[in-house]
């Protein structure tokens, strides 16, 4: 009689945070990059860095993600630099960046070459449509996770809703929105000194 398959162990959300070494940073960023074909990098990054490997808390990750999105350049490249530099300074940033770019860049070159010769094939077209659909679902999943972190903060929900309406309904461009909403949010959440008794 065949033994019953054991259920896959779930990561413990209460496990202590741990600091990765350079090799772990490189492999972790490679895992993020290679897990996220078609998009959803932020969702995969959060799952791997926060839930599986326990390198950062949810709040620290969201802080880094916000900084990464405010800075120019690809969000996840900025995020890799943030994660690497947080643990090992410049060397950590370079290692994390290498992990994020090395294999995906090589695969992208091979896939681009293949697409150049096969892009008119219906199977390839349908395959890409399926990948795009999956990445949209992962992006929605990340959005709901972020929203869940702020369900008890009406000001954060208000800022998020106002930003969404400004971009989606009123077609406000990103830079003016960031220049207005960013300072307002920072002023509201700036640490204030509590009065001493």
Short characterization:
This protein is mainly alpha-helical. Helix content is 72%, strand content 0%. The chain has helices at 22-35, 41-52, 58-70, 75-118, 122-149, 154-168, 174-189.
| Gyration radius, in Å | 20 Å
Q: Structural class of the secondary structure composition?
A: mainly alpha
The overall pLDDT average reads 82
User: Which oligomeric form is depicted?
Assistant: single chain
N/C terminus separation: 71 Å
The low-confidence runs, each spanning 5 or more residues with pLDDT under 50, are none
The largest sheet, given as strand count, sense and whether it forms a barrel, is: none
Strand content: under 5%
Overall shape: globular
**Helix content range of the residues, please?**
over 70%
Question: What string gives the helices and strands in order?
Answer: HHHHHHH
* Total strands: 0
Number of helices: 7
Describe it:
It is a single chain. With 197 residues, the protein is an all-alpha fold. Helices cover 72% and strands 0% of the residues. It is built from seven helices and no strands. Helix 2 packs across helix 5. The protein is globular. The termini are far apart.
In terms of topology, how is this protein built?
Elements: H1 22-35, H2 41-52, H3 58-70, H4 75-118, H5 122-149, H6 154-168, H7 174-189
Helix pairs in contact: 1-2, 1-4, 2-5, 3-4, 6-7
What would the keywords be for this entry?
197 residues; mainly alpha
């Amino acid at each position: 009689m065949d033994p019953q398959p054991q259920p896959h162990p779930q990561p413990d959300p209460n496990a202590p945070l741990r600091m990765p070494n350079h090799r772990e940073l490189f492999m972790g960023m490679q895992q993020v990059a290679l897990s996220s074909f078609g998009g959803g990098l932020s969702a995969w990054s959060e799952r791997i860095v926060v839930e599986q490997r326990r390198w950062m808390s949810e709040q620290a990750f969201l802080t880094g993600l916000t900084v990464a999105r405010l800075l120019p350049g690809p969000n996840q490249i900025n995020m890799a630099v943030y994660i690497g530099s947080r643990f090992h300074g410049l060397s950590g940033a370079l290692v994390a960046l290498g992990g994020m770019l090395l294999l995906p860049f090589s695969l992208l070159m091979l896939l681009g070459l293949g697409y150049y010769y096969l892009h008119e094939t219906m199977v390839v077209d349908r395959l890409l449509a399926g990948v795009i659909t999956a990445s949209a679902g992962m992006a929605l999943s990340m959005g709901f996770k972020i929203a869940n972190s702020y369900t008890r903060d009406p000001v954060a929900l208000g800022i998020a809703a106002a930003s969404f309406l400004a971009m989606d309904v009123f077609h406000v461009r990103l830079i003016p929105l960031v220049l207005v909403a960013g300072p307002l949010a920072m002023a509201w959440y700036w640490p204030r000194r509590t009065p001493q008794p």
